[in-house]
Amino acid sequence: MNGITEACLLNPQSDTVEVNDYKVELPEFPLWWLPRTKRNIKGLREIASHLHGKTASGRGSRSGFAGEATDMDKQLIRNICDLEQQVYVLTDVLQSIIQMAVEEHERSTSERIRRVFRRGWIKVRSYGNRLWNNAIFKVCGGLSTIVFVGTAILWIVHSLHK
Fold this sequence. Notes:
Elements: H1 3-10, H2 44-56, H3 71-107, H4 109-132, H5 135-160
């Protein structure tokens, strides 16, 4: 046993450090252009597209470096190229994780149910709009309203004469 372990075992009433829970303030959201409503799992597609757009242009092959270079310059160039490759690998990993998260979210049962209801509601609404804009529907609706009001008036008059 070392000295610290012996001191703790011999002195059980020693002050123990309590860990307090605290929340760390998050920095400002880095993708300021993304609307607040999409700053959740539903915005991952746009973030992935943005990431791809920002990194795809830098992946083009270089024509190399022109001119003479010392050994130190060659070492710096090699290190920079290695760092670029590491950044590209990390970008690919992040892109893959984002795509997996989006696909997993879209596969979830509640999201599928929500999409089915949304598609159904859109279809019903389109049929309703098509029916509402039909001239025959408006003529039939007007005639049925006139017949209903006339029937209601005749029934009231007939009920009052009894």
